[in-house]
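Lab notebook, bench 4. Still working through the backlog of constructs that have no structural model yet. Next entry is a single chain of 322 residues. Request: give me the structure tokens for it.
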Amino acid sequence: MPVSSSSSVRLAEAGRTDGTASAARAATSRRRPRDGRRAERLAPYVLVAPALLIIVVLRLWPLALGVNFSFTGDGDRNGTSVGFDNYSELLQDPLFRTALRNVGLLVLLLPIAVAIPGLLATFIYLRVPGHRVFRSVYFFPAVLSPVIVGAIFNLLLAFDGPLNTVLGGVGIQPVDWLGNPDVAIFAVVGVHIWATFGMALVVFLAGFATLDAALMDAARVDGASLPQTIWHVIIPGLSRTIQFVFVTTMIGMLTSMFGLLYIMTSGGPEGSTYLPEYYIWFQQGHMNRPALASAASTALFVIMLVVGLLQVSLLRRAGRET
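Model written out:
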């Protein structure tokens, strides 16, 4: 049958409409992958932005203000620029020099603070006799407040306390654990290690979960002893975990011992247990010298940064050599 002119017009319009719709769908389909790729690229920045904002507002900005404040004066010179006078005074202050010397002692004791949770985690992982006891009690000290821990060990380490009673029972002279300037800092650091090793042990156990079991089986088949297995398999396999624990443990020693120091020794005897954080509190809270305290805080930040970078560098070099 012949097709009318009106029908031809309608068919032509329908064809143009379908062509336009197809072109629109094609354009939309091309835009969607581009939009999806753009969203994927932006997603990490959107997710990280809140954390970065918190770090900048609550960490970096106060740090910058503190550094700036450390170049101002106290007392009659409050608010005026004094250059490096506060830092010069720090270096001349015997208490601050004692605090720096104790920081050096902490660095020397750091391998012990890391080795204790590392060995306990190894015992748990290798299921040596007694590993169930370690798994049951290792985290208990970490949940105690430093005030409670300090009060408990004040009783245990007293000159007439239980520890000296036990030592006297085996013929050893009593030790003035908290009253002897040469011993007190070791006693406080030892208590701190006992109270905080649980967190490091958790990190080590998480690291063991990533250790290649085939290497452990090969060492077992080859008849490697426990020290050989630790040195040649476990330490190289956990090198990144060890680096992390070294840095976090050092930061904890420098910034988390105030509670124990305040309860156990109050910086004594004779200022022998001063650490930078206790010195900062003393200058701010007792001497009302916030600018000098800010200078000490800046010095503490620089110390932590330098020590942390040196530790990472040395551990990486040791990991390559092993």
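Notes after review: The chain has one domain: 87-321. The longest helix spans residues 5-69. Flag for follow-up if needed.
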